[in-house]
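Pasting as-is:
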Amino acid sequence: MTIRFLALGALPLLLSTAVMAASPKPPALETVADLALEKDALAWDFVEGITTEVGPRQAGTEAEARGRAWAVQWLRANGFQNIAVEPYTMPTWVRGEERAEITAPFAQPMRVTALGTSASTGEAGLAAEVVYFSSYADLQAAPAGSLAGKIAFISHDMKPTQDGSGYGFAGPARWTGPSLAASKGAVAAVIRSIGTENHRTPHTGGTTFAAGVTPIPAGALSNPDADNLERMFARRGERPVTMKLTLTPRSLGETDSGNVVAEITGRDPKLPPVLLACHLDSWDLGTGAIDDGAGCAIIAAAAKQVALGGRPLRTVRVLFAGAEETGLWGSKAYAAAHKGDAIYAGLESDFGADRIWRLDTNFTKTDPVLYRQLALAVARFGVAPSQEVATGGADLNLARESGAAILDLQQDGTHYFDLHHTPDDTLDKIDPAALRQNVAVWTQVVGILANRAEPIVQGK
């Protein structure tokens, strides 16, 4: 335990004492949220600590295990109750050597990173002609067997959007593009990184091979290298473009992972809890600051801030899910382990650390009184109302399966995919003021939910 944890862990108590000195009652929720906007240091303490003292936390590895131990220590130091690690096992893949080079007609190296579950080329690498597809749809249209012995290049680009919707458009190139290429005979696949910046920082992420399709080596080129490769095809004339690709990832088989859970216990343990989720694992290229160290920092800080207004009626449970990046293993394990548990409402923070700008729920129309209360309460933080229906983050399987209310506190994602799954996912990219705004909004929303006795009206 570091002294820093103890000192900052005591900050909520100090703030609470200062506020309560002027009043015999606990501070109002609005006061607590406003103080969080101005002074919260817990969220920064968490994300600074885990990125500095643990760093990248790839699912199923020793680094993820160190992240769980660190999180348990932090939660204990900051007064959470019922802290536990809930273990499970999962298949684990780790990267190895990564190189790509164009060998003809314009020989030069390129920046590449392997996609999760990629097969290995072997240490010697493989060399083959590259076939260019400007979009995923073009690859779908390629005749069966037409890629035999070749490398498919999918240059399916992504545009920045505030709500992150560009990811849904571009994502299939990574999610299933290599499998599709393999089904048509390709010996390997490279994609344009699913990202929105123009740095030579390729974006990793998982890819999935369909049943019956043998996995092939699959990598992502940085956006500038994908641009360059496109230009090569425009200039080549009749000459083939050839690449040597070396990717040597390997499977470790089944390894241990786990979810970290903790609570701020409520006054009435019989009432279903409010579930706050994030994921503790990260990809291995950066230090997992925005994805998703910041998310875990936000939900933990908000849970503590809610308690400053007095012990809430309902328990506030935090779920630091493991192994989200490689297949939602933690979310699925948590839902299976707690099948039948009732959840009052579920919220997840997993979209970086930029400001929250919109409030979505799945009860906006069915419980307009509650929605209006929430919307009015967060308007002062710059959060707009919405008619969009919340679907919840990836680690909220239990909340969805139990029919709980779902809320999405939508963060500004304009620049999120500049950093997503890259070596640039580091602490310096987080704006402390924006992080505090997240904590303030979460504190206000979670505080209202955790102190509400009535059921939330939802449609059928």
